[in-house]
Structure formats: structure tokens, C-alpha cells
Amino acid sequence: MNNLSEYLVMIPGPTNVSHRVMQAMTTPIINHRSDDFRVLYKQVREKSQKIFQTENDMIILTTSGTGGVEAAVVNLVRKNDKIIIPVNGEFSSRLSTMIENAGGIAVRINSNYDEVPSIEKIEEAFEHNKDAKALYVVYNETSTGTRVDWLNKAADVTSKYGAYLVVDAVSNLAGDDLPVDKWNIDICITATQKAIAAPPGLAILSVSKRAKEFMINNPPNTLYFNIPRFLKYYEQNTETPFTPSLPLFFAYNEALDMIIEEGLENRIKRHKICSEAFYEALESMGFKPFAKPNARSRTVIAVNYKDGMDDKKFRGLLSKEFRVLVAGGFGELKGKVWRIGSMGDVNRYHVLRTLSAISAAAHMLGIRIDNDGVSIADEKLKSLNH
Ligand SMILES: Cc1ncc(COP(=O)(O)O)c(C=O)c1O
């Protein structure tokens, strides 16, 4: 065993996991081909529908978020299918490559990384590619701290062209507005280790009726991520085709209960307020958020480094001296930005302790801070009423 003392985990996933959820993982092992599991699986599926705000079928895969995204690609994209995809960071770029790996033609709509391609650009792309099969969108680009602000209108465009709408919401579902049925999303993907506040290891997908029909009539060339196979096993026996990670199912079930107890709406509001507290406080400290104001994520706060600030030293100090973990940038933004994951259980304590540690670490490194940010954040956090 290791002797790590607890960190405050403020990276964009995995996030802090409550003892209640961790404890659920010590539930004794059950047979995954028994009624014990069938009852659990059914409950978890139904509760997942609640947090996705959908009546669609749910798929729960024992894999990280990438596996869920890959499943959403290999089950829907076929050779030479044209897929429109806004690209403004590492995850959307990765997704466009996955589409090509599956034989599709990725029609990339690029924008600067500090913003999001506009809905008008997406419409234009459909105008030029009327036969496009789907729009794949990374709702919250974790690598850049940006968020698509037109997702509620995306289906107006896709439905005009009979295209599918697929959404990677790995880093914001359960912490941001995302009514899957209201917004007509065909496939929506998330993972357990971010706003859901459970350990990493499960990916969850909702699949609409028409996406399901396509997959059943055009089975994918994959065994493990085969969605029709998952659906069949659920319908016939309420089981999964392969051995599920039982401890993660127990943990996810508990995390779902906690979300439902808090109320999804309250939880989404809490995320919004905490992110606003971070943005306002950091700006008052003289830090510049990376994303343009209308593109700012509500769960991932990406911040530019101040001149002379060293990524390794700053984050090392935060981790070693203050046991607060924040993330660096990656891909094109490595060394240029740092990122705070403001999701999951995030609340007043997390925001204020993180800001205090940032302020102290900056002071120790001789970086000028205009204001400690704490009182500004605290003022904002007063509107959290639960
Ligand atoms: C938007 C987005 N998509 C996909 C992934 C991949 O998830 P995982 O690292 O769990 O495989 C991540 C992970 O951070 C993400 O933020």
C-alpha cells in the first residue's frame, strides 16, 4: 500500500471522489450473471437516464471516456461517410482522427483554440456537404477550457439534413446543461471520473432509437465496443456481454444516488457558480483565462501563465506544499496554460482552498498577484444555497 495523504484533486478528471462513493467499491463481489447484478444494472441504467435527461437506451462500458467515444464512432461511421466536426483542441482533433480511422471522411471546421467554431460555420459546412451523415461535437473541449454555446440549436441544423447528432460530453455531463432528449441528441457520451465524481473506468452512452436501428441493421466490425450486442444482452437477460467492472458499477450507482439527492438542476447551478467564482477571482489576481468570454467552460478553467511563470515549478509547489493538484496544458498548449477542473463535488471549500494555495504558491515564486482572489470568490459563492 502507498502512504499518500489526500490531495485536493482539481484537475479536469479524475476529480475528488467522496468516501461514500469510494466505500461502495468495497461491496462484496457478486456474480455478473445473477439476479444480484441484474437488479443493479437495471437501476444504474434507469438512474443514468435521469442524469442524461433521456428515455433513450443506455450503454455502460467498462472503459475510460476514449472507449466510449470510440464506440460512438465505430458503431455509426462507415466507409466514406462524411462527418462534420468542429475542431478547437486536442479532444476534437483526436475525435476527427478516430472518424478517419473508421473509414469516414472528417469535414473539419477549425477555429482558434480559445474559441468555438460558430453554428453558422456548421450550417455552411452542411450546405456544402448536404450528404453528411452526422455532426460530431465535443461539447466541452477539456484541453482548452472551451464550451460550445450553441448545442441547444445543433439539432435544428442536423435534422434539416437528416444527419445524426453525436456529442462527447465526457467532461461536463452532470455539471452543465444537457437535456439529451430535448436537444435531440442521437448519441451522448460521458465517463464516470469527471462531473459525476466517481472513479475512472466506466463510459456511459445514450443511443437514440434511429441510431440504434442503424447499428442493428449495419452491425459494426468490433466485438468489445459492439453496441447492438450490449443492447441485445440487456434486452434478453439484463446483463452485459462481457465481465463488467463490478466495483465501478457499485461506485457509479452510489454517485448517481448522490446526484439525484442533490438534484440535477442544483448540481448544474453549483458548477456554474463555482466556475464563475474561479474566473472572477483569477482575473482579479491578474490571471487571464485562456478562452474568450463567450466560449468559457463551466467545468474546466484554462488560464494563461503570467510572464516568467514556470509550469513545472508552479504546479510542483501547489502539489508538494499545498496538496492541491491542478493540470498543465497539453498538445499545442503545453507550458502555455494551466487548467483547473471545477467539477464533481466542487464547492466553496474546493474553490477557496485552491485559490488560497495558488495565491501562496505565486507569492513563494515571486509572482506578483494583484489580489488574493478569495474574497471575490467567496462573494460569488454566497449564492450557493445548498
Ligand atoms: C472531452 C473529452 N473527451 C474524451 C476524453 C477521454 O477520456 P479518457 O481519458 O477517460 O479516456 C476526455 C478526457 O479528458 C475528454 O475530456
Walk me through this protein's architecture.
The structure is a single chain. Helix 9 packs across helix 10, helix 10 runs antiparallel to helix 13 and helix 12 runs antiparallel to helix 13. This protein has two domains: 8-12 and 263-381, Aspartate Aminotransferase, domain 1 (Alpha-Beta Complex), CATH 3.90.1150; 27-262, Type I PLP-dependent aspartate aminotransferase-like (Major domain) (Aspartate Aminotransferase, domain 2), CATH 3.40.640.10. The protein has a seven-stranded mixed β-sheet, sandwiched between helices. Strands 11-14-13 form a three-stranded antiparallel β-sheet, covered by helices on one side. A two-stranded parallel ribbon has the order 1-12. 42% of the residues lie in helices and 15% in strands. With 386 residues, it is α/β, with parallel strands linked by helices. Strand 3 (82-87), helix 4 (90-101) and strand 4 (105-110) form a beta-alpha-beta unit. Pyridoxal-5'-phosphate binds at residues 13, 64-66, 69, 91, 138, 142, 168, 170-171, 191.
